Amino acid sequence: LLAVLLWLVNLVEGGCSGKCCKGRDPTCSSTDWRMDRVFGTCFCDGTCKHTGDCCYDYTQVCPAQPCIVSEWSPWSGCALQCKPTYRVRRRSIEREPMNGGDPCPPLEEKAGCMEYVSYQGQHCAQTHGPAFITTLEYNIERRKRALSTESEDAGFCMEFKLESLSQQCTMETQPHARWMQYLREGYTVCVICQPPAMNSASHSCQGDGTDFDGNKILHWQAVGNPRCRGTWRKVQRVEQCSCPVVHSFVFI
């Protein structure tokens, strides 16, 4: 009779019925069959799948619900003016993950950028110093913003042969900095010089090597990761770039 009563109690209170707990909760348990077919204490908390001690009905009663996030906000402006820096975009959590569902992805992303107008409204593009480069994708957004204020100067394309680069370039994994992984020693890359990076007086971009021949070692730096930098030699100046997209960049 006692055994029957215990069986009835387990039947009513066993499994995960009425129990679905967040995180690791040792009190969120029952006495019933586990998913690994062992009878005893089983759990219905958010980590039981990782520890292998879920009650047999956990996946049915407490289905996994992944994190849901909002759409990305628009990109912010550059954090600083007249020097390489970063811009930011963010998103928010609309639903927290439940029952071992996929965790939330990053809620903030940063990407390199540079503004060419100071807080006083003065144009501040330079022509000396290392070349600052970024992904060709950035130029699409920049050109959209500049259409109403910049001249129609189409600019030009400069081809370089990469001589050296730091190991930080190939180790970069941030979503908007992965373009740095395509920088390789010995490769020929194309870099576009266009407004607003182009100096209106000299019609050149900082570090583009316009005044040097191919024997001159020139320095470049990736915007978004100051540790990704190296050297290259100028190959030629052309009107239109012909490099593959992954080997095409823009002076910033």
Q: Mind explaining what this structure looks like?
A:
By secondary structure, the protein is α+β, with helices and mostly antiparallel strands. It contains five helices and twelve strands. The chain has helices at 2-13, 48-51, 58-61, 136-146, 168-171; strands at residues 29-33, 39-43, 68-69, 85-90, 93-95, 108-113, 131-135, 156-165, 188-193, 217-222, 229-238, 248-251. It has a six-stranded mixed barrel with strand order 7-10-11-8-9-12. Strand 1 (29-33) and strand 2 form a beta hairpin. The chain is elongated and about 80 Å long. It starts with a helix and ends with a strand.
Distance between the termini: 82 Å
What do the pLDDT scores average to?
85
Provide the gyration radius in Å: 29 Å
Widest beta sheet: strand line-up: 7-10-11-8-9-12
| N-to-C order of helices and strands | HEEHHEEEEEHEHEEEE
Helix proportion range: 10-25%
Provide a count of the helices. 5
Structural class: alpha+beta
The total beta strand count reads 12
- Give the overall shape: elongated
Low-confidence segments, ≥5 residues, pLDDT <50?
A: 2-11
**Oligomeric state, counting identical vs distinct chains:** single chain
Largest sheet, described in full? 6 strands, mixed, barrel
Strand content: 25-35%
